Amino acid sequence: MTGVPRGSEAEVDAVLAANDALYAALEAGDLDALTDVWVSGADADDVHGAVCVHPGWPVLRGRASVLRSYALIMAHTDYIQFFLTDVEVEVLGDVALVTCTENILSGGEAEEEGELGPLVGGKVVATNLFRRTDEGWRLWSHHGSPVLTGGDDDEEG
């Protein structure tokens, strides 16, 4: 983890465990585990409930819409692995903010049916907002934004 976490060490560790559970569920393609990560009940479906923005997608509101989006992603992803960097945590009362960079390795399209495609890399900066619930820290909002990288010329301008 980089940066200085804010909140007690136990709170920060609990939030990091919840954040890790999100990415572990995605890597495993485990929709049940992913479902457990997100807020549920009244916390999920009110006007301030579960919210998700995948890179390039519109805002999704409500637990059902969010989970449906992940089911679609998982159904069309043969392989995905996340290497998180630049992870920072801030806990303020019953809300916790995690920012990180998702360095993503996934399977690309195969040239021929029945074969595995090449591995493709990508980078997304993510903001994960958690709420403290009776069941522990649960993801309340996820926003991922692609990092568009170019050649050295981009850095000079």
UniProtKB/TrEMBL annotation:
Domain SnoaL-like, first and last residues per copy: 15-147
SUPFAM superfamilies per the UniProt record, alphabetical: NTF2-like
Coiled-coil features, chain-numbered ranges: none
Pfam family, one: SnoaL_3
Superkingdom classification of source: Bacteria
Protein name (record): DUF4440 domain-containing protein
